[in-house]
Design a protein that fits this description.
202 residues, mainly alpha, 2 domains, 10 helices, 0% strand, flat
């Protein structure tokens, strides 16, 4: 829907009305997904909107990150609003991501252990299935959320560079394909896919 919408906007810059329409296209499914609740999938919609809406919306969203950090940390006006939008475990997930040391034995445990795993891998890594942190269960979800931590411990910094290099090559190829698209809708569609993948990599 976003690709089709942005393709039909012929002006070089988006006016306020265009931004509102694009925001509604993302906002409606985003709210419905949040109510499931599924915070992770809902957040993926945002970079698609940012990529499509040019640099002005990107700057505005970057400013919004600091506001998001404010309510996620439990301070400011938006902290009370977030109680009605996000589930308690979703707020805890954001808070533990920003400040894992505040609950080192609880919500922030996995993130802190993942940092230890990355550091213990060093440059060369400990070898396949030889990582103590992930093999001994210090990283409970090593096969999904913290798969990069397990990879970094076993394959080291060189392995991380390889993985990120492959992701970068894929993203660059997507951008190249978008530039070669036969129509504007195809260009925005491919860039939306690149935005979603790039957000997951980040």
């Amino acid at each position: 829907m976003l690709a089709r919408f942005f393709a039909e906007v012929r002006s070089d810059q988006l006016d306020l009305r265009d931004l509102i329409k694009a925001g509604l296209l993302v906002g409606v499914p985003l709210v419905l997904i949040l109510k499931q609740p599924d915070l992770g999938t809902a957040l993926v919609l945002m970079p698609m909107l940012v990529v499509g809406a040019f640099w002005r919306l990107a700057v505005a969203t970057r400013g919004g990150v600091f506001v998001g950090g404010d309510f996620a940390s439990g301070r400011g006006f938006l902290s009370s609003v977030s109680r009605h939008i996000l589930k308690p475990y979703q707020r805890e997930r954001i808070t533990s991501f920003l400040h894992p040391e505040e609950d080192a034995k609880g919500a922030g445990y996995q993130l802190l252990q993942s940092k230890i795993a990355v550091g213990s891998g060093g440059f060369w890594g400990k070898g396949f299935r030889n990582g103590s942190q992930n093999q001994l269960g210090y990283i409970p979800v090593r096969y999904s959320d913290f798969i990069m931590s397990a990879w970094a411990e076993e394959q080291g910094f060189k392995g991380v560079l390889l993985a990120l290099g492959l992701y970068m090559a894929l993203l660059l190829r997507l951008v190249q394909n978008a530039q070669r698209a036969k129509d504007r809708a195809g260009m925005f569609l491919v860039m939306g896919v690149a935005a979603a993948l790039g957000f997951h990599c980040w």
